[in-house]
Write a structure and sequence with these properties.
By secondary structure, the chain is α+β, with helices and mostly antiparallel strands. A hairpin with an 8-residue loop joins strand 6 and strand 7 (134-139).
């Protein structure tokens, strides 16, 4: 896991050197530069596979005409290496980076389709001769590893982090107002936008080609149903056995490293199953990590359950207690690590801090809820859609809508009367957002509102709706992966773990596992029936993640599923904001600070602050405003 950076079109070695230096936390083990009169590439290395100097980057082809900088891990690199050796290729390292380089030599741009892993990369190819050079940028299928770029004065500047782009001195430090409104609405900025004006994220599962003819972005992978032929029709017991085999393979591949590997253990079924499979591979020698809180904290603390699972599986477990002093002392480092503000991330920050004391790589259960319908809101989306469908079919309401076009437009924005696609996205958006679009617009400073074209939740989520031919809950699963998971959860996990020079791997978010999940019937993943939709219900009572639970039953005791619920992980934000962080909150949300920053409306911010203190608003509202202001001071102002 590393940081990459570069400039194409107007080489500036010192700018790239500054970018690499700004990502030292991503790659403290080594760094390197390549430069000619067209392109400069930079790399900060966290050595994980082949930790020798042979893995130094930028890495060159044998003829010296191709240069590669690579961030991430390729889990199927050994099998791909064997195939290349059979074709006559010779290797000089044992690294996955060299395999990617040789794959590009053999297959060109189609090589990205062969990669199972987490990655962002840049390939500079000079084989076509002078004036015909090309730069390729690519990103993994789920968007686990970041890749950001900006175009300035005829050149392309790219890096793994916004901080690095800003460190180049070539990217203006200005906030994008539309992205700011979306951040407040949804809790994070949705890619390809970023919070910095003129900076974009290369979309997940895409590559960019840049040469003298211009820039082109193409997709190389997408979600699809029934790629595992015949799986949907198999008896359920055979589906369970097949899934167990697929997940075991994913975990086994993702444990490959030349450095210590551990796991996050929350106490839920996803992380517990991952750890159980790891223990099966290693004979029980797994280091696991969880975080807990001080007594009396208003939070969901699953660390005691995690410790019980660790004891059952025989892992070497560390439970780290987070105190109020830890929160105060680590706040600035957390903000700097975020790279972009979001309403979340602190849990990833603290568990990464704990793990990084003992390991360089940690596996996580992230993705199990999204692929196998574990979030309570999935069933709620279906119920919401059924209610909306009933309203749309009401002949009296339809007649009223025809006479009141302005009302129809408002209801259309809410998903009523606007077709199934709009209704679906609006129903999904109602399950997970922060302020919502209209309230967010009212928080943005008045002189900035003219730059915003207000859109509905359905419009904001349009790019996430990638599986329109799927059943409703299959679409919701992809919506979640493309929305909340990619833009908030994975982005925060990458930023907060790399702030501690720790690599996070996610066995559920593997292309083979995703193809498997979307080849299953919904009933194999979510068994609602007459069961309760209460989010506090146990796994057995709720029927969520049915097939995951049934695989896990081979490793975990029966009372695990009867006694535990999918509760999520929640830190004591409200307690902290009213206690040890009260002064920081008061300072960042003060009228003077808000006016100086020029981002928010002072009256709106004051009202939000007061209502939170009075118990009339959730912690997420003032927390997000505070994080944005601290990020502006620490990162944007430099």
């Amino acid at each position: 896991m590393c940081g990459i950076a570069g400039i194409y079109g107007a080489p500036n070695v010192e700018a790239v050197r500054r970018m690499v230096d700004a990502m030292h936390h991503r790659g403290p083990d080594d760094s390197g530069l390549f430069a000619d009169d067209v392109c400069v590439l930079g790399h900060a290395r966290l050595a994980i596979i082949d930790t020798s100097t042979a893995g130094h980057q930028p890495m060159f082809s044998t003829d010296g005409l191709i240069q590669l900088v690579f961030n991430g891990e390729i889990y199927n690199y050994k099998s791909e290496r064997d195939l290349l050796i059979a074709k006559g290729y010779r290797f000089h390292t044992s690294s996955d980076t060299e395999v990617v380089l040789r794959l590009y030599e053999e297959y060109g741009e189609t090589c990205f389709e062969r990669l199972r892993g987490i990655f962002s990369l840049a390939i500079y190819d000079q084989r076509r001769g002078r004036g015909k050079e090309q730069l390729l940028l690519a990103r993994d299928q789920f968007g686990v590893k970041p890749l950001l770029y900006a175009q300035r004065e005829g050149c392309l500047i790219f890096a793994s982090e916004i901080k690095a782009l800003l460190a180049s001195g070539l990217v203006p430090r200005r906030i994008d107002t539309t992205a700011l409104q979306q951040l407040l609405s949804l809790g994070s900025v949705y890619q390809p936008a970023t919070l910095v004006e003129g900076v974009h994220a290369l979309p997940a599962a895409h590559f960019m080609r840049l040469d003298s003819n211009g820039m082109r972005i193409e997709r190389y992978w997408s979600f699809a149903r029934d790629r595992v032929t015949g799986l949907r029709q198999l008896p359920y017991a055979e589906q369970v056995d097949s899934f167990a085999d697929a997940l075991r393979e994913s975990v086994r591949l993702q444990m490959v490293a030349d450095v210590p590997v551990g796991a996050f253990l929350s106490g839920g079924v996803d992380s517990s199953l991952i750890v159980a499979l790891m223990a099966r591979e290693t004979g029980g020698h797994v280091k696991t990590f969880s975080v807990g809180f001080e007594e009396g904290a208003d939070a969901t603390d699953e660390s005691h359950e995690a410790a019980a699972v660790a004891s059952l599986l025989g892992t070497e477990h560390s439970r780290v207690l987070i105190t109020a002093d830890d929160m105060v002392n680590k706040l600035d480092h957390f903000i700097n690590g975020l790279d972009q503000p979001s309403v979340d991330g602190l849990n990833s920050y603290f568990v990464s801090h704990a793990a990084a004391q003992s390991v360089t790589v940690s596996l996580s259960g992230t993705g199990g809820d999204e692929l196998f319908l574990g979030y309570p809101w999935f069933a709620a989306v279906q119920a919401d859609m059924e209610k909306t469908s009933h309203v749309r079919k009401n002949p009296i309401l339809s007649s009223v809508l025809r006479r009141l076009p302005s009302l129809e437009r408002r209801l259309h924005a809410r998903g009523i009367g606007g077709g199934d696609d709009v209704a679906f996205r609006e129903a999904f958006g109602r399950q997970y957002h922060c302020f919502g679009p209209e309230a967010a617009l009212g928080i943005v400073a008045e002189d900035r509102r003219k730059d915003i074209s207000l859109v509905s939740l359905a419009d904001d989520l349009a790019l996430c709706d990638e599986l329109p031919e799927g059943q409703l809950l299959e679409r919701a699963s992809v919506m979640c992966l493309n929305g909340y998971t990619k833009n908030q959860l994975l982005r925060d996990i990458d930023a907060c773990s790399m702030a501690h020079s720790l690599e996070i791997r996610v066995p559920f978010l593997d292309v083979n596992i995703a193809d498997f999940a979307f080849s299953l019937p919904v009933a194999s993943k979510l068994n609602i029936g007459s069961r309760t939709l209460d989010p506090t219900a146990s796994y057995s009572e709720s029927g969520v993640k049915k097939i995951v639970c049934d695989v896990a039953r081979k490793y975990l005791p029966a009372n695990f599923f009867e006694a535990r619920a999918k509760r999520g992980f929640s830190l004591p934000y409200a307690d902290w904001l009213k206690g040890p962080l009260a002064d920081v909150l008061a300072d960042t949300l003060s009228e003077q600070s808000v006016l100086k920053a020029g981002l928010f409306d002072p009256k709106a911010v004051t009202r939000i602050h007061q209502e939170f203190l009075a118990g009339q608003r959730p912690w997420s509202h003032p927390w997000l405003l505070m994080v944005v202001e601290l990020w502006r001071r620490n990162i944007l102002q430099g």
